[in-house]
């Protein structure tokens, strides 16, 4: 039989990265490809204690259906933690989602009619682009520099595209570039969003993984109009396997996200939400995050130091102050996909950059993730990659 | 600011039942309203042992990202169990979802363009209707009798609606009616679906909860053309809090569901999938399901016996051979919502029937769930409800 799918199915493409991951998971490959967090950072021993405790104390409710909005003590912790980072938010403005990826899908579902415009950074997070694509928007890319989205270009994009439904940004330690939007730009972004009456989706999975002392308040901190929809996650600060993220927004907006969640899967895993809340109750979350940061900081240093040694001077790359990624720019005319082929021959993997550009092009970029591999393997992998690059 | 949502947002309605649940969860209310499984059936002690074992043996992978398709040993178990119920399926045709609700959402996403037709039983599962509504279909209801969907009416609906994208059925111990489609009708349903080239979504959350000895093969059992998309769940046989369900379909179709899952939330909770697989490895799942069945069978008996005693003879209701629900028909002109008000005064709750009809009407029906309350409370609740009904 010939199946008649919905029109949107033609837009739902396999994630280039998820497909690539299958290749790179072969034994012996040093992978800088996926966005996998460091498994050394997972609180396995603590989880053993917690899971038994949760089942003992509240087993019946931990295994039962619960509310769509999420486990109340967890929502309260999130609200308080956001308050600490300078965001005025209450627990009833928090919806717990299956990772922040689900918040991205709901953003597409709630805002995008076919042909509407999504403005995003160029390049942008490929998982978000894939989530939005299912709702058939047109993507308008705004160029970046080391301070993030260029504001003049953003305003031009807003003027030229009255059907813009939202501006999607990963302002802090961005995936894929590792760049962070300056405070000045954050304020200007809010100002423009208000002026053109277009909400901002602030996706902030990496903000907690900061290596320096400088405080960079989230864009949401500067939001007095309720125009920023904030997506958070515990995938990097706790672990991704439990799939716990959240949406934080003004009450009327979050209410729409709750309705989307009801239809989509009723609620997030009850047991995992309670376990996470129990971890926060029994352990010092700040201390835990500090431990996680140290792991990533050391790996960032290992990779960036090795790149300095091993990469030819003609190759540019970003120096991230947090998060998991650095972004490499090859001389124009060189295709990162060709480099990947050669690099895989030496058992080193990364992600070519073009899939991070929703409208294609920019084949001379690639993304390196320093989060997953040990420092030794990072040094060895960069050495091999440097050899490939120097042979150009 | 005034937010411009997508057009579909007007179609996303709060679930009448989820809203009602908030009312009925007040202390002292005997609730026959929600679809909550019996918490006595949850394997809490076993889960304690399992969660520690999983973290000890494979903590790092249990807390890490994993594949979109799902945990392979779990997919294999599901395929084998479906094989046992007479369905020819392989593990790579299984996608693990966040409960079967997510399979419903993806069905809407993959098949429905605005204005397309979804054919469903009348009445039908309200959670499915809500999931589909986000994609703006037109619902065409097919009347039922005690053997399920009336096949002549189904054919009429297919002829009259060439834009039909799928037929949605809960053929076994249906929610809300407790009815089961006869084997003859199952065969006819497949035949019509093939003839009109329209896929069937078979939603089967209750099939395992059967009280008698009669074997009722799933509709998918009769499917030689690959036209049935089967949705299963562990929410009733294991527990709903872990949110584990699945989609089983022909390889090309399941591939589309995998892509929808990638964009929607990357993957289902890794830890919970491994825990469930470990439960299946260490314990006898058949024995466990038998224990669960016994709980529900006793409660079915408690409720139906009490109804026989306490309800006036003018009131008709179904006699379910499995599952969690019986469906009550009041004399025409009586609104179940009015009865609910009186019933809540005596602290007894149920769900009025009209929300199960996508196009409204049929106010003289309501649904009773016998799954959640103990036998004593069932007897007491039905006694109170009988009093309200006899006073009509």
TrEMBL record, chains A, B:
Domain Aminotransferase class I/classII large, first and last residues per copy: 53-385
Keyword RNA-binding: no
Annotated InterPro entries: Aminotransferase_I/II_large (IPR004839), Class-I_PLP-dep_aminotransf (IPR050859), PyrdxlP-dep_Trfase (IPR015424), PyrdxlP-dep_Trfase_major (IPR015421), PyrdxlP-dep_Trfase_small (IPR015422)
Cofactor: pyridoxal 5'-phosphate
Domain of life: Bacteria
GO molecular function, one term: transaminase activity
Gene3D superfamilies for this protein: Aspartate Aminotransferase, domain 1, Type I PLP-dependent aspartate aminotransferase-like (Major domain)
Keywords: Aminotransferase, Pyridoxal phosphate, Transferase
PANTHER family (alphabetical): AMINOTRANSFERASE, KYNURENINE_ALPHA-AMINOADIPATE AMINOTRANSFERASE, MITOCHONDRIAL
Protein name: PLP-dependent aminotransferase family protein
């Amino acid at each position: 039989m010939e199946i008649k799918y919905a029109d949107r199915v033609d837009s739902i493409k396999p994630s280039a990265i998820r497909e690539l991951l299958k290749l790179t998971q072969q034994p012996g490959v040093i992978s800088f490809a996926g966005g996998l967090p460091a498994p050394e950072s997972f609180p396995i021993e603590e989880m053993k204690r917690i899971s038994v405790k949760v089942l003992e104390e509240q087993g019946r409710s931990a295994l039962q259906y619960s509310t769509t909005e999420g486990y109340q003590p967890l929502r309260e912790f999130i609200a308080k933690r956001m308050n600490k980072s300078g965001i005025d938010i209450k627990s009833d403005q928090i919806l717990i989602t299956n990772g922040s990826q689900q918040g991205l899908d709901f953003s597409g579902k709630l805002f995008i009619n076919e042909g509407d415009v999504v403005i995003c950074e160029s390049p942008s997070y490929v998982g978000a682009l894939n989530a939005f694509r299912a709702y058939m928007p047109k993507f308008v890319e705004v160029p970046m520099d080391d301070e993030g989205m260029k504001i003049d270009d953003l305003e031009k994009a807003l003027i030229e595209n009255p059907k813009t439904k939202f501006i999607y940004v990963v302002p802090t330690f961005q995936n894929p570039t590792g760049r962070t939007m300056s405070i000045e730009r954050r304020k200007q972004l809010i100002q423009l969003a208000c002026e053109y009456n277009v909400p901002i989706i602030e996706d902030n999975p990496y903000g907690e993984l900061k290596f320096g002392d400088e405080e960079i308040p989230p864009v949401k901190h500067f939001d007095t109009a309720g125009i920023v929809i904030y997506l958070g996650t515990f995938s990097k600060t706790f672990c991704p396997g439990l799939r716990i993220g959240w949406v934080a927004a003004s009450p009327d907006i979050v209410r729409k996200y709750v309705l989307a969640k009801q239809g989509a899967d009723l609620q997030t895993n009850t047991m995992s939400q309670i376990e996470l809340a129990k971890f926060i109750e029994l352990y010092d979350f700040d201390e835990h995050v500090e431990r996680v940061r140290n792991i990533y900081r050391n790996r960032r240093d290992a990779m960036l130091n090795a790149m300095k040694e091993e990469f030819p001077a003609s190759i540019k790359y970003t120096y991230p102050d947090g998060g998991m990624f650095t972004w490499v720019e090859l001389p124009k005319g060189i295709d990162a996909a060709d480099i990947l082929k050669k690099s895989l021959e030496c058992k080193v993997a990364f992600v070519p950059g073009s899939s991070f550009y929703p409208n294609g092009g920019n084949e001379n970029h690639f993304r390196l993730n320093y989060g997953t591999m040990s420092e030794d393997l990072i040094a060895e992998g960069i050495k091999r990659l440097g050899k490939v690059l120097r042979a150009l």
